[in-house]
Amino acid sequence: MIDICNNCSNRSIFVQKERKSEFRLKNMRNVNINEVKVDNCLIQGHQYRCDWLYEIMCQQVSEVYYVELKGKDLRHALAQILETVNFCEQRFAHRDCKRVACIVLSAYPQENSAIQNKKRELKRKKIELRTSTSKLEIVI
Predict the structure, then answer these.
(1) Each residue of 21-72: pLDDT tens digit?
(2) HEC letters along 40-54
C-alpha cells in the first residue's frame, strides 16, 4: 500500500473532476480504498504521471485503478498512465494485482499508430483500458 499522498477510507463514492472530465469510483463492497494523488505529489518533477490512482484493499492491494482526466490527447494520456505504471512497478506491489487504466477525455480523438502502440504496451503489461468521454464510472 502506498502510504504517502494518500487518503484511505471505505466511503461509498470517490469523485475526481477536471474541466469537462469526471471519474467516479463506487465502492459497493464497502472495502478500504486508498486514494493517492499522483500528479505533483507521489511523482514530482518533469516525469509523465497520471492524476490519481486507487488501490482497492482486501487485506492487501488487490486492484489498482490509474486515473487520467484529459482534454482530447489520448496518446499523451496513455503515456502518462504507462509512466505511472512503470514507477509503481519499481516501488510497490502492483504487478500481481488487477490493474486498470481509466482515461476520461473531453472528446475522443481519431486513432493513429502512436495510440495503437501505447494500447498494445498496456495489453502486454496485462492492464485493462477503459476510456470514456466526459464521465467514467467504475463500480466495485
Answers:
(1) 999 999 999 999 999 999 999 999 888 999 999 999 866 778 999 999 988 8
(2) CCCECCCCCCCCEEE
What is the spatial distance between Cα 33 and Cα 28, in angstroms, rounded to a whole number?
A: 11
Q: Which residues contact 21 (CB under 8 A, 6 or more apart)?
A: 69, 70, 71, 104, 105, 106, 134, 135
Selection from 46, 63, 45, 44 nearest residue 54 by Cα: 63
For the whole model, what pTM was predicted? Answer: 0.91
Residues 86 and 129 sit within 8 Å (Cβ to Cβ) = no
Distance between CA atoms of 74 and 105, rounded to whole angstroms?
Answer: 8
> Reading across the β-sheet that carries 127-133, which strands appear in turn?
6-9, 32-37, 52-58, 60-70, 98-105, 127-133
Question: How large is the angle between the packed helices 74-91 and 113-124, nearest 10 degrees?
Answer: 20
Q: Which residue has the cell 471519474?
A: 23
What residues contact residue 9 under an 8 Å CB cut-off, 6+ apart?
32, 33, 35
Task: Check: CB of residue 103 under 8 Å from CB of residue 130.
Answer: yes
Q: Where are the alpha helices (DSSP H) in the chain?
A: 74-91, 113-124
